[in-house]
Amino acid sequence: MSENISVLIKREDVEKRIQELADTINKDYEGQEVTLICILKGSLFFTCELAKRLTIPVMIDFMQASSYGAGTKSTGVIQIKKELDESIEGKNVIVIEDIIDSGRTLNFLLKVLSDRLPKSLKLCTLLNKPDRREVEVEVDYNGFDIPDEFVVGYGLDYAQKYRNLPYVGVLNLKE
Ligand code: IMP
Ligand code: MG
């Protein structure tokens, strides 16, 4: 099997869009502080790039969920693999995700987090595949709507590879 990657969103365009998202968040939360919840591992790069551009006080915590095995298809079963270190009660929380596909991961995580009584809870994703949605998820900040293709780079992986690519690319698998 050979793997080849074609560029879908180039580096400058990803970074320009992240700056726009940061500008919006800076305005929306003016005079307040926010806790970013980075959903490991895919949103690590996006969280860093976004956080660097925020001018409001920011705290960062990490959570890991899993819905995928090593391949490109979801198993549909969500588990929390790593819990937050801090309480989010009474805090402004923004969940930072790499991509929303079926919506199952975020639908599950947002329910879990809202039960912990944050002051506010929003969702920010770099990528969104609206055609693939199986359960409803309200997205507050969306980088890009993309077609139904398996993408890698900018934190997103295929079997743990390609997270370090500085752009978003479509993975093509050939026999
Ligand atoms: P959902 O629960 O189906 O919305 O899946 C969300 C998770 O699946 C994301 O956080 C990614 O880890 C993974 N995922 C979905 N689509 C892709 C993709 O195109 N490339 C890499 N990972 C993906
Ligand atoms: Mg992920």
Number of alpha- plus pi-helical segments:
3
Unreliable runs: none
Please give the largest β-sheet: 6 strands, mixed
Helix content: 10-25%
What is the strand arrangement across the widest sheet? Answer: 4-3-2-5-6-7
**Share in β-strands:** 35-45%
Mean pLDDT: 94
Q: What is the alpha-carbon Rg in Å?
A: 16 Å
> What class would the helix/strand composition place it in?
alpha/beta
Q: Topology as H/E string?
A: EHEHEEEHEEEE
What is the first-to-last residue Cα distance?
5 Å
Cofactors and ligands = inosinic acid, magnesium ion
Oligomerization status of the protein chains: single chain
Overall geometric form: globular
Number of strands: 9
Summarize the entry for a quick read.
This protein is α/β, with parallel strands linked by helices. It has helices at residues 11-28, 44-52, 104-114; strands at residues 2-9, 34-40, 58-68, 74-82, 92-100, 120-128, 141-145, 151-152, 168-174.
Any overview of this molecule?
The protein has about 180 residues and is of the alpha/beta class. It is built from 3 helices and 9 strands. The protein has helices spanning about 10-30, 45-50, 105-115; strands spanning about 1-10, 35-40, 60-70, 75-80, 90-100, 120-130, 140-145, 150, 170-175. The chain has a 6-stranded mixed β-sheet, with helices on both faces. Helix 2 (about 45-50) links the parallel strand 2 (about 35-40) and strand 3 (about 60-70). Bound molecules: inosinic acid and magnesium ion (MG). The site of inosinic acid has 17 residues, from strand 3, strand 5, helix 3 and strand 8.
